[in-house]
Design goal:
5-stranded mixed β-sheet; 24 strands; binds shikimate-3-phosphate
Length: about 475
């Protein structure tokens, strides 16, 4: 697909529903008793894969498109209401589906095989196989390479404590979901806080979930590190913002060496109403586009600003971005707000440490912002990028070089020299939705035309992406 828009971004946009929260609404709704009603559900291919897996396990799910996301009804059958699927479960491109579902499948009274597309079959699954096996699960990689297809024989599980070497919400959620079927309390400690949607939503459905943030003695350390957020991200605050970011980057709390979430087994989950906030990971492309194109002023409606997801806002603030939070509110347990973004002059920044999990999916678009910022941006502590839908360090380095940006890949990040005049080029998305969207945004600030291979892969998380971009570039 060839892309070239020239006009500033103006007007307003409602961002599609959050992918992580949409997945979880179906999973927890299926395990709950009674009906769960979800509004603003994301109809990206990943979330449709989750729906299809649960339908295969006997859960009736109605999904009706509406003007604002989809309206979804899940007729839950309780914790033990799933039935054996007739065929292999297909998670498509979705890591969240494979990893979270494996935690649920490990505790069932039936056996399953779960797999996905070529990308999923290369992504590491040992990270969930190890803790599940420690809980008594019988899970193996059919090809013996630690990847899907995974063969899972349902077993009675044991409560355990797992110290995860990676800050991964998929690992944490997998273990907590297996903990629903264990014979005692299950807990997970991670080296930095990853997104906490499972903890918030499981609790909302009636599970007994506890986290460090509930402990008064630890909550101040946690909130200092993560939850301290100014409600305005205007440029005049950027000097102190850069300082805050520096502190956050470097803080390893003296009070504790990890962040723990725990769950009690066999709760009765009860169907709920879930209003999914807009996905900050999708909003990220429009935030970046409005910052980059001179004369832009764009209002993004109803964006989720959960502090475990809002690292991009803090980094943009430190770069000098003019972003204002308006109408702060909650969608259930999830905080959300409207974001007013105005084009801004950006400066380089260092991104590393505990902030990384809070912006992990935004690093490709942050790398694009860095390419247009003054100075050299260093991204570190982000080795997880190598095991996403593509190796995002290698793919971003290759594609940024193609548009003329001096960039060096490191083992766990990138060093990007910004501020040079960049030009359109032929870009390989490697069928990774976040790469395609990042370079569609880069196209707005490059000379010439950008040609993106497999551009339609945006269907994974944002099917209307190009239409929405055309709508506001006028
Ligand atoms: C997700 C967690 C993150 C993120 C992914 C969605 C989730 O992955 O990159 O897009 O919904 O839990 P990791 O847990 O592997 O960091």
């Amino acid at each position: 697909m060839k892309i070239k828009y020239t006009a500033p971004l103006r007007g307003e946009l409602s961002i599609p529903g959050d992918k992580s929260i949409s997945h979880r609404s179906v999973m927890f709704g299926a395990l709950a008793e009674g009906t769960t009603e979800v509004t603003n559900f994301l109809t990206g291919a990943d979330c449709l894969s989750t729906i299809s897996c649960f339908r295969q396990m006997g859960i009736e799910i109605e999904c009706t498109p509406s003007a604002q996301g989809a309206h979804v009804l899940i007729y839950g059958k309780g914790l033990h209401g799933l039935s054996a699927p007739f065929t292999t479960l297909d998670a498509g491109n979705s890591g969240t589906t494979v990893r979270l579902l494996s935690g649920i499948l490990a505790g069932q009274a039936f056996d399953t095989v779960i797999t996905g597309d070529a990308s999923i079959q290369k992504r590491p699954m040992k990270r969930i196989m190890t803790p599940l096996t420690a809980m008594g699960a019988d899970i193996s990689s059919e090809n013996g390479n630690g990847c899907a297809p995974l063969s899972i024989r349902g077993k009675k599980l044991h409560g355990t404590h797992y110290a995860s070497p990676v800050a991964s919400a998929q690992v944490k959620s997998c273990v907590l979901l297996a903990g629903l079927y264990a014979d005692g309390i299950t807990s997970v400690t991670e080296p930095a806080v990853s997104r906490n949607h499972s903890e918030l939503m499981l609790r909302y459905f009636g599970a007994d979930v506890r986290t460090d943030a509930d402990e008064p003695s630890l909550s101040s350390a946690v909130s200092n590190e993560l939850y301290g957020r100014a409600s305005s991200f205007e440029p005049d605050a950027s000097a102190s913002a850069a300082q805050t970011l520096k502190t956050l980057n470097n803080t390893k709390s003296a009070a504790h060496t990890g962040f723990t979430a725990s769950i009690s087994p066999e709760p009765t989950l009860v169907g709920q109403k879930v209003r999914v906030p807009g996905d900050i990971s999708s909003a990220a492309y429009f935030i970046a586009a409005a910052l980059l194109v001179p004369g832009s002023e764009l209002l993004l409606r109803n964006v989720g600003i959960n502090p475990t997801r809002d690292g991009m806002l803090r980094v943009c603030q430190a770069m000098g971005a003019d972003i204002t939070l308006l109408n702060e509110d909650h969608s259930g347990a999830e905080p959300c707000a409207d974001l007013l973004v105005r084009s801004s002059h950006l400066n380089a920044v260092e991104i590393g440490g505990n902030i990384i999990p809070t912006l992990i999916d935004e690093l490709p678009i942050l790398a694009v912002l860095a390419a247009f910022a003054d100075g050299t941006t260093v991204i570190r502590d982000a080795a997880e990028l190598r095991v996403k839908e593509s190796d995002r360090i290698a793919v971003m380095t290759e594609n940024l070089s193609r548009i003329g940006c001096p960039v060096e890949a490191t083992e766990d990040g990138m060093i990007i020299t910004g501020g040079k005049a960049l030009h359109g080029a032929s870009i390989d998305s490697y069928k990774d939705h976040r790469i395609a969207m990042s370079f569609a945004v880069a196209a707005l600030a490059c000379s010439g035309e950008m040609d993106i291979l497999d551009a339609e892969c945006v269907n994974i998380s944002y099917p209307e992406f190009y239409e929405d971009l055309a709508k506001v570039c006028r």
